[in-house]
Design brief:
Elements lengths: L9 H11 L1 H8 L16 H4 L26 E7 L2 H12 L6 H15 L5 E4 L4 H7 L3 H13 L7 E3 L11 H7 L4 E3 L9 E9 L3 H12 L4 E9 L2
Parallel strand pairs: 1-6, 2-5, 5-6
Antiparallel strand pairs: 3-4
Helix pairs in contact: 1-2, 5-7
This protein binds zinc ion.
The site of zinc ion has 7 residues, from α3.
């Protein structure tokens, strides 16, 4: 289902670096610096990874006292950490600085949270990024996260959804416009069987939940049984 997601060979990485320009070339040449504490050695050091695990042992669902704001038709929404500090910097580096090596630790955090809290699901589906953004970055960050999480959880990963038309960059819009901007933009990708599947959506950060809700509706329209979601971070 997800052919070609194993670590790319050095030759193809160099070809990609050439295509994507200097930032990726530097990425290959320089040792990684921790996005959390700037220590050299790893894109996210062991200590800073701890910030992604702050909720890992929490029971599933929302903590008592928090308004029940699970966006329908999702049956479950889980996340690893608040969208602040290390998690925020790591997600920004993955999305905007070409630091794709962060997909591994972030995907592992997603897997750890889902292993603890996930009520069910038999297929991981990344929230489709905009084709323009994928072209700019040279990769699909949500697909990388899902691939890493699926690897740990031993769940299949499939790009089961696509954007029906491109939307204005979400971060440039306010909350209300974000919700309005997402009506009906997702649809099932031809040739990917979602019928009868319990899909677990994977994304970097959930804010209003409108994107996840839009994806969930597309899965159900395609005959999916249920839709859950797990993200690296939650923004409030
Ligand atoms: Zn660190």
């Amino acid at each position: 289902m997800l052919r070609g997601m194993s670590a790319p060979g050095i030759a193809s990485r160099l070809v990609e670096a050439f295509r994507n320009g200097a930032s990726v070339a530097l990425d290959l040449a320089l040792p990684a610096t921790c996005v959390g504490c700037r220590r050299e050695g790893s894109p996210l050091c062991r200590e800073c990874r701890g910030w992604l695990m702050v909720r890992v042992e929490n029971p599933p669902g929302l903590p008592i006292g928090v308004a029940a704001d699970l966006p329908p038709p999702l049956v479950q929404l889980e996340w690893c950490a608040p969208f602040t500090g290390v998690s925020r910097r790591a997600i920004h580096a993955l999305k905007y600085s070409g630091e794709r090596r962060l997909a591994r630790p972030l995907g592992e955090a997603v897997a750890a949270r889902w292993r603890r809290a996930g009520a069910g699901g038999d297929l991981l589906v990344p929230v489709p990024a905009s084709p323009d953004r994928i072209r700019e970055r040279g990769y699909d960050h949500a697909l990388l996260l899902a691939a890493m999480a699926g690897d740990v959880l031993r769940l299949p990963v499939s790009q089961g959804l696509e954007r029906a038309h491109d939307t204005a960059a979400q971060h440039a819009l306010g909350r209300a416009s974000r919700a309005a901007n997402l009506g009906g933009v997702f649809r099932a990708r031809a040739g990917v069987p979602l019928r009868g599947r319990w899909v677990v959506l994977v994304d970097d950060v959930v804010t209003t939940g409108a994107t996840l809700a839009g994806c969930a509706m597309a899965v159900l329209d395609a005959g999916g049984t249920a839709v859950s979601a797990v993200t690296v971070a939650r923004e409030r």
